[in-house]
Design brief:
The chain has helices at 2-16, 21-28, 36-92, 145-161, and strands at residues 100-107, 119-125, 131-135. It has 164 residues and is of the alpha+beta class.
């Protein structure tokens, strides 16, 4: 009768054996002194309990390591989003055909011809408000790098001012 009760309640006893009076009563029944089969069953049961407890501890260790790894991964993803999230926002705005529009280019002639004056360029990137940037006077309008500098500085200005 006790063996049937142990079998029927063994799963619950494994989890709740320290809190459940019925489980404690069932586990307290000790027939191992009089019956060799009962002694072997009790030893196997205790071995199974120890094994289950060892697996539970290992599971808890693995779960804790996984949770820590997920926290680290989340922190890395947050950092990447802060650093490069503007790229996603920029990509979402590229549906507009007018990616970069140069509105005005203003270069004044210096009174002293030995000095070069910077060129003021007003640009609009995607749907942003127009903003001005400066190209060093050492780069002439005819220079191939002039537009490279304008594009680079326009993107940087858009990133710094528009996407935050």
């Amino acid at each position: 009768s006790s063996l049937i009760s142990i079998r029927r309640n063994s799963a619950g006893c494994l989890k709740m054996r320290g809190k459940c009076d019925k489980c404690q009563a069932i586990l307290a029944v000790d027939c191992s002194q009089t019956d060799r089969d009962q002694r072997r069953i009790k030893e196997r049961f205790e071995d199974a309990l120890r094994l289950a407890e060892r697996f539970t501890r290992r599971y808890d260790e693995i779960l804790k390591a996984f949770q820590e790894e997920m926290l680290n991964t989340t922190a890395i993803l947050d950092q990447l989003n802060q650093q490069f999230g503007w790229v996603s926002q920029l990509a979402n705005r590229t549906r507009n055909d007018k990616l970069l529009k140069v509105i005005t280019v203003k270069s004044s002639s210096p009174e002293d011809t030995s000095q070069t004056t910077d060129t003021q360029v007003t640009v609009q990137v995607f749907d942003s408000e127009p903003f001005s940037l400066t190209v060093p006077g050492s780069v002439s309008l005819d220079d191939d790098t002039f537009m490279d500098i304008v594009a680079r500085d326009a993107l940087r200005g858009f990133k710094d001012n528009k996407v935050e």
